[in-house]
Design a protein that fits this description.
cytoplasm, ubl conjugation, PH-domain like, Band_41_domain, four-stranded antiparallel β-sheet, alpha+beta, cell projection
């Protein structure tokens, strides 16, 4: 067969892009493929078996619609683009997520879609519930909280709360993170699938969960109501209230739903009840509502029937998988606990080792300081010993000096006393000498006077003798060669002898007076010398007393 023939037999294809909540995939589809062929290809690629909840959604002329499974893909009114984009989303919601969502991939896709709807405010959630849901989302993404790893700011790039909630409360991102982390820390030990399931169990109780809203009117002119379709039935809401329906039709109470152009009719199971009719703005909207009603009703009835073999197998597998995962999680939790205990023990040992090393380092430093202190103390002790010796020597010298000074002081006192006594004696002597000097002076004066009187008497006697001689011996004048002395020698009369005796007494008296005068002068000179010596000794004693006062 030629290459040209092979090319002719090769089927023509077109490209599609499948967008899930968290990923994108591209496939090449054959031109003849129906919607179910493409849908099955995507489910196989995802490993999804619970296919009845999902569908392929696309947007055309501003309206979201679902790809029909029984028609060719290219025959449907799809966007003319290459590749053609479809969103793989949950089309129908379970009544009880814990019982109906068997596969982990199914649960994960529902978790991602519901989380996005809450963040996009398609599902209203109270601020308190959003914080709790955010904590489960963080647990599913990051695992168990670890304060050493999950430091402040680790949620800065995660979108966890609706913008409405952020605007409603004047809290900083750090404060919101603190609130979420407080709940997150309590979810320790919860696996990712359990955290996602807990998220969905909380979300399924929200009023807007799983509800598709469409504007409707009770007549052809006004659109003043909303029609909601979910897993439990059909609900009628006022235009401004999507939480509490004005009227509800459960699937079990609906006998028939019919659709004709823009009119949709709901017939209750009770034939006596009023038939509800409403109008939509477009035929496509009516067909979409009708399609959702049929799909939700089929699932509603399916839940109340005995499970098929496939569902039973899937549930059994799910139970086994859950049991296996539970055991695995328990084993992992045990291993994690043991690892954490081992890490804590290791950290404790490392801390203890570090503490011991630190204590050893401190002890070594203390030892070095002690050695240095001991050396310093030894040196100081040596210096102190030398200083003590020096001080002892100084003390001994001081004691000797003190004793010497005491002795000196005693001697000084004794000498002072003796000196004072000598001074008093000297003063007494001086007084006596003065008195004696006065007395002697008086005696000398008397003696001088007596001498003068004696000489005067002698002169008078001599004159008288001369006069007598002249009178008795006139011839003596003619012999001048004879001195009166000769005549006195020659005459041995009584008057002459008396004169010689008197003259001798005068000479002796004069000699005695001169001798006494010389003795007085000698005694006076000795007394003055003695006074000078006393003054010198007193001055020396005063200097010693001053020096002794300075030492003390």
């Amino acid at each position: 067969m030629s290459i040209r023939g092979l090319k002719k037999k090769q089927p023509k294809t077109f490209k599609v892009r499948i967008i899930t909540v968290d990923a994108e995939m591209e496939f090449s589809c054959e031109m003849k493929w129906k919607g179910k062929d493409l849908f099955d290809l995507v489910c196989r690629a995802l490993g999804l078996r619970e296919t009845w909840f999902f569908g392929l959604q696309y947007t055309i002329k501003g309206m979201c619609t679902w790809l029909k499974m029984d028609k060719k893909v290219l025959d449907q009114e799809i966007p003319k683009e290459d590749p053609i984009s479809f969103h793989f989303l949950a089309k129908f919601y379970p009544e009880k997520v814990e019982e109906e969502l068997l596969q982990e991939i199914t649960q994960h896709l529902f978790f991602l879609q519901v989380k996005k709807q809450i963040l996009d405010e398609e599902i209203y959630c109270s601020p308190e519930a959003t914080v709790l849901l955010a904590s489960y989302a963080v647990q599913a993404k990051y695992g168990d909280y670890d304060p050493n790893f999950h430091e402040p700011g680790f949620l800065a790039h995660d979108e966890l709360l609706p913008k409405r909630v952020l605007r409603q409360y004047q809290l900083t991102a750090e404060m919101w993170e603190e609130k979420i982390t407080a709940w997150y820390a309590e979810h320790r030990g919860i696996a990712r699938d359990e955290a996602e399931m807990n998220y969905l169990k909380i979300a399924q109780d929200l009023e807007m969960y799983g509800v598709n809203y469409f504007p409707i009117a009770q007549n052809k002119n006004h659109t003043d109501l909303l029609l909601g379709v979910d897993a439990k039935g059909i609900h009628i809401y006022s235009i401004n209230n999507r939480f509490s329906p004005n009227k509800s039709f459960e699937w079990s109470s609906i006998r028939n739903i019919s659709c004709s152009e823009k009119e949709l009719t709901i017939k209750p199971l009770d034939k006596k009840a009023e038939v509800f009719k409403f109008f939509s703005s477009q035929l496509k909207v009516n067909k979409l509502i009708f399609q959702l009603c049929i799909g939700n009703h089929d699932l509603f009835m399916r839940r109340r029937k005995v499970d098929s073999i496939e569902i039973q197998q899937m549930k059994a597998q799910a139970r086994e998988e859950k049991a296996r995962k539970k055991m695995e999680n328990q084993r992992l939790a045990r291993e994690k606990q043991l690892r954490e205990e081992a890490e804590r023990a290791k950290e404790e040992l490392e801390r203890r080792l570090f503490q011991l090393e630190d204590e050893a380092r401190q002890a070594n430093e203390a030892l070095l300081r002690s050695q240095e202190a001991a050396e310093l103390l030894a040196e100081k002790a040596q210096i102190a010993e030398e200083e003590a010796k020096l001080l002892a020597q100084n003390a001994a010298e001081a004691e000797q000096e003190r004793q010497r000074l005491e002795i000196t002081a005693l001697k000084s006192k004794e000498e002072k006393r003796l000196m004072e006594q000598k001074m008093r004696e000297a003063e007494l002597i001086a007084v006596k000498l003065v008195k004696e000097s006065d007395r002697r002076a008086k005696e000398a004066e008397h003696l001088k006077q007596d001498l003068h009187e004696a000489r005067e008497a002698e002169r008078k006697a001599k004159q008288k003798l001369l006069d007598i001689t002249r009178l008795n011996y006139p011839h003596m004048a003619k012999y001048p060669q004879y001195s009166p002395g000769d005549s006195r020698d020659a005459n041995f009369d009584k008057g002459s002898i008396k004169l010689d005796l008197k003259d001798i007494d005068l000479k002796r008296l004069s000699f005695e007076i001169e001798r006494e005068r010389l003795d007085y002068l000698e005694n006076s000179r000795k007394f003055e010398d003695r006074l000078k010596e006393l003054k010198s000794e007193i001055h020396a004693l005063k200097l010693e007393e001053k020096q002794a006062g300075l030492y003390n």
